Amino acid sequence: MQLSERLSTVASMVTAGNCLADVGTDHGYVPIYLYERKMIPRAIAMDVNKGPLERAALHIAESGMKDVIETRLSDGLTALKPGEADSIVIAGMGGPLIIRILSAYPEVTASAKELILQPQSEVFLVREWLSGQKYEITEEHMVFEDGKYYPMFKAVKNPSFKGLTAKECKFGRIKVLQEPEILKAFLNREITAKKEILKKLETEATEKSRIRAEEMKQLIFEYEEMLYEM
User: Fold this and answer.
1) Which long-range contacts link 120-125 to residues 24+ away (Cβ below 8 Å)?
2) N or C: more exposed end of the chain, with fewer CB within 10 A?
């Protein structure tokens, strides 16, 4: 089985030999891909929606993996018991939803050796939450696919971790980022887009546009500063 670059990068972060829980598995592609490559001994593929889970079960059966990849109808981690998974993967969901899922069953989350997360939005909130819970991000990736940038990372519990800075929450841990050139391209694109917005705002003579223009200037400064530091 071949995966998209986004999902293959997510899969690459799963530690070999770990038992996997794929939350929001959709078609079940990630556990199938990993088992085919003998990276995992077994997996639990979970989804809150019956339709996607049935599709995942069909793909798993067609791959001859029914005995090693179990499907469970589950809202987040509801159907997962503590200790059943070494690696928890949550990919393709909004940041606040990922936080809600991990927070709802702390004993299940804490029992996993690693969390592999690919938030679709508000990535900084996920990094902030991980930092507050003493999770250290040990591996960062950024993938550019179909015109979109996808940040993703692996986090492990580390009680002695001092936490992320505000800049690291926003842009990631540069020292563990595997694709700095893609982050640079993202920053340059954001700077260009925000400068265009600023140009339009500066032609408007309203208090609202003035405030928004100041916000744009601050964002441009932050992105340019980050780019310079890289």
Assistant:
1) 120/92, 120/93, 120/94, 120/95, 120/150, 121/94, 121/95, 121/96, 122/94, 122/95, 122/96, 123/95, 123/151, 124/95, 124/169, 124/170, 125/95, 125/96, 125/99
2) C
